[in-house]
User: Fold these one by one.
Assistant:
Number 1:
Amino acid sequence: MMTRHWPSRRHAGLLLLVLTACGGPARPGVRAGDLLLTDGFAYAPLDSAVGAAYVTIHNAGMAPDTLLDLSSPIAEGVMVHGGDMAGMGPAVVGAHDSLVFTPGGAHLMLMNLSALPKAGDSLALTLRFARAGTVTVRLPVRPYGTE
Ligand SMILES: [Cu+2]
């Protein structure tokens, strides 16, 4: 009877170790010049009309940079939207500042999709900046609406 508790406790300990390892200080990201792109993901689109993508852009440089253009091979176009879904002008990342695209806030809208990636897939997103140039990130696709 007593020994039955053993295995489950051991498993709990192992799980904790794994979680700790994943939450380490190393923050994966894609670098482009002074910019570091992190926390990128997309929601699995519900239909081919639109899809939403998110990324955080950190600018470690002394000068602001501007996001001029976006594209994805599976979208006819990619737009910057404000939290109210209205199109925004060129998005600026201030010096030593971050530009955060996040659910409920400003986001990247993929229009007229030629494919419908599912949760677990990834999709390519190319961003062109005035200073840092062009960078492509692969965004993991999450189930629609999840954090
Ligand atoms: Cu939108």
Number 2:
Amino acid sequence: MEYTRLGGSGLRVSRIVLGCMSFGDPGRGTHSWSLGKDEARPLVRAAIEAGITTFDTANSYSLGDSEVLTGALLGEFAKRDEVIIATKVYGRMGEGPKESGLSRAAIHAQADASLRRLGTDHIDLYQIHRYDPEVPVEETMEALHDLVRAGKVRYLGASSMWTWQFALAQHAADLNGWTRFVSMQNQYNLLMREEEREMLPYCLDQGVGVLPWSPLARGRLAREPETATRRSASDAFGSRLYRQAVESDREVIDVVGAVAAERGVSRAQVALAWLLHREPVTAPIVGVTGDHHLSEAVAAVDLDLTDDEVARLAAPYVPRLPEGF
Ligand SMILES: NC(=O)c1ccc[n+]([C@@H]2O[C@H](COP(=O)([O-])OP(=O)(O)OC[C@H]3O[C@@H](n4cnc5c(N)ncnc54)[C@H](OP(=O)(O)O)[C@@H]3O)[C@@H](O)[C@H]2O)c1
């Protein structure tokens, strides 16, 4: 495994981040495809053994159960200071006034709830899952800064939003001497490259690390088209994505397959290797639901694509509307 700094911060993360959205009680929340504790255990163990140090979850995944499993399984295989735990706030946990969004009241209540579920006294990277237009950005940024000052959170990050919203939040922090975001977690993969227009150049300029979510387009880049899996049959959010440019997607997927066959590696390796070499990507957050998924993600770190392969992979892409937030 390789390690790198998260943007301009001093935090060192593994170049593959394990996404823990795949873990949690399938009966809770909206991820009926997620793996329970016993199925998740060998995957978390394999991740630690492969040198992955960085794990991403959210309060809303499986209505909190992803955090419970992540905290418990990391506790089985690693010491707390050997791992970086990233989680998120914003999503709806209930109907109460402190159970969604980014008000001061919600941020403090949800951070405490995440700490309890994770079984830790601090969160390494606390991310806002989305922008909340219903709350003054100064209120959100000051509440996040207070968590850092209280020692409950080490670094702040953000996730999918418009670049102008992210810039507003950073500006509010700068004006008031509050903690800035060190990372942006956004959707970026060979089938969704709209972030190349504004967000990625902004992150590069500002020294913000980039942690792409759904780097395999929820599996579409890792297998033959139309392959049915437990997740693909029931991934409600995922089924709304990647429907705008079906022909272009198909061509990209075919090139991924062709490059993989020529190099004698898996499709997942090719798609992740492409991402790993894109500036300013820090580390893709991979989702693993099967045995070979993790080893193929780890192997992607060592796959160097030629300039010609990179160009072939990118060529069939056509512009589309940003989606997923
Ligand atoms: N911030 C946000 O808004 C946001 C949104 C989404 C995700 N995330 C984060 O990003 C993480 C990853 O998201 P994701 O699970 O959608 O990412 P992904 O890596 O694009 O998709 C993972 C899926 O791809 C398939 N797959 C993975 N490796 C494979 C391989 N080697 N061969 C064949 N198929 C393979 C599996 O699908 P099957 O199960 O169908 O086989 C797996 O469930 C999440 O866990 C979460 O932490 C964040």
